[in-house]
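Render this sequence as a predicted structure.
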Amino acid sequence: MTAPAWGTLPSLSGQDPARYRSHPLHAPGRSYQETNCYADLIIELLHGCGFEPLAVFGHLVRMDFEGDQWTFFKPPAEDLECLYGIDIHEMQPYRPLPQQIAEQIADRRTIIVELDSWYLPDTDATSYRREHVKTSVAADAIDPDAEVLRYFHGTGLHELRGEDYRGVFRVNDTSLEVLPPYTEIVRFDAGEPLRGDDLRAAAHQLLARHLRRRPRSSPFERFGASLSVTLEDLLQASLDEYHAYAFATVRMAGSAFEVASDHVGWLLGSDAAGIQQAMGEIVDGCKALSFRLARRRAFDPRPLIESLSGAWERAVDGLDVAAA
């Protein structure tokens, strides 16, 4: 299949960043408009290429507290292959990356690559030209001669050029002390993508499988136990340390369950009402907890943790019934 034209070069989606409309999972007004860099780019990569990303988030029922942070969630490769016929696996960036990207897009594939958001204009409100932070993007189109890259990142489709292009790809940088970026190839020929009722049926089976592997006890209880130990030090920590903690904990959990709520609503329709209500309470509780932590004043988190734990148990109980 030939890639859609962008000027004289191929484009994966054939879309213009100036006219691109993000998926509703990234709509303004959501409690968490962004989730994490990898999940966000998968949402927009799927959406931009004509797939429904809501189908692939059944794995979020396995969200767990992992000692000092919540699961950094990303759609499992096997679920992407099952639902959309998309295969994602690691590749070796042993040649100039722009050349590799151009060749893969010409073959109706793309590359996911970790780049430095210092050079990504869409991060203007956070790290652009302020902070060196690694983040994952998926290439949509590239013109090495004109030094232009179009890429999926965050909540949409974006473009960089000129100095940002040279910086992000380290053009003319001959330093041997820089590690090559982590890259993955995305193939769209691993099977026939499912649509309509077939997509929902497969997503339902995946949800049931993930549900069987959910945490055996409430992860919010374990999160609460950890928070009770770290709270005093956290309230005295710097603002940057707070933001790092919040992203890894309350923000990760809250954004995951907001997407999970949309997933079960798409999958189960009116039968998901009770589950979505419980998941909505988790989202609200995570936001409330983050606000309390941001105030930098001592408080008792136990009532919020108990509410979050109860909502998790009701959501899981409802999913057990629905999955059956």
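Summary. The chain has two domains: 5-187, 215-323. The two ends are 40 Å apart (CA to CA).
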